Prior knowledge:
Blueprint: E1 8-10, E2 22-27, E3 32-39, E4 43-48, E5 60-67, E6 71-82, E7 88-93, E8 99-101, E9 109-111, E10 115-120, E11 128-138, E12 144-149, E13 154-160, E14 163-169, E15 173-176, E16 181-184, E17 191-193, E18 196-198, E19 201-203, E20 206-208, E21 228-233, E22 238-244, E23 254-257, E24 262-265, E25 274-277, E26 283-285
Parallel strand pairs: 1-12, 2-4, 3-5
Antiparallel strand pairs: 4-11, 5-10, 6-9, 6-11, 7-8, 7-10, 12-15, 13-14, 15-16, 17-20, 18-19, 19-21, 21-22, 23-24, 24-25, 25-26
Amino acid sequence: MNCLLMNILIVGLLASLGLASETTHYHCPSGKSNAKFTVEEGHDIMFHTQEGNKYSKKVQCRIKMNLGETCEEMELTCNPFNLAKGSILSVKVGKNKAKKFKKKKFKDVTADDDTYVMFKSKKKVSTGAHCTMSCTVPVPSTTTEGVFVAGGLAITIGANNGYPVSVYGSSEGFYDPGSNTFCAIQPLPEMRLLGTTTGFKVCGGIELNVINASMYTTYSPLDYAANYCEEFDPSSGSWSISNVWESPSRIFHVAWQSSEGLYLMGGLREEFSITILLDDGEAVPAGFELVQKSLLYV
Length: 298
């Protein structure tokens, strides 16, 4: 399984990813003109017969709407639609016969192929039309549902001349419950324990490597606190630091993603306090404390 070419949808407590809707606007200029656009899922094309209050005389505005790779079917709607006598809006889907619309009469057009839209005016003018071509049937998703795993240890029990051994390693990857398979990805630069994973972001906890793994029986976890977050980019397969803070350390804490930012709450010796991680990388106190202690032991 190729993890980096796979579209991942995080389920359960993890964040889900989506596409934001975008709109491209186009105004038919005076005289003759040609324009070309591609309609994709989440990307609409809105065109206007003019930029001002009324369109000009003798306009010939030709627009080609290409059906994008992410869209199976698109629809043209116009509201308002007010053409003067002699003006016409024609819509031609693929090799089909063009549909012509006049005056105040327009009917939505469904298209499963590249579409040509032509607006023509003569001597009389009017307030024109505002039309939108939108993807109504996207290409079926090939998204694989799975769980993003980061932080913690992968412990392998092996044998060395008949003696059992434990091999510590990183645990980052995607788990697909449907096929019961695990796909490893680029590990974190430093192995990390006792932190939280929200979406693709791993925050807090302690840094761990094989050399100092035996030292935690005599040293406090706070000596190895990781006061920063690292975020995984599925498109490049790499990790980058997204948030850094000086104190307090967050170990055995819990995390909650809100519209304000990522809340890191409670933890070792910080059972009541809260830190908010903002999208710009800043970390700020929440300004209030928890009512009950929060210390997560697993």
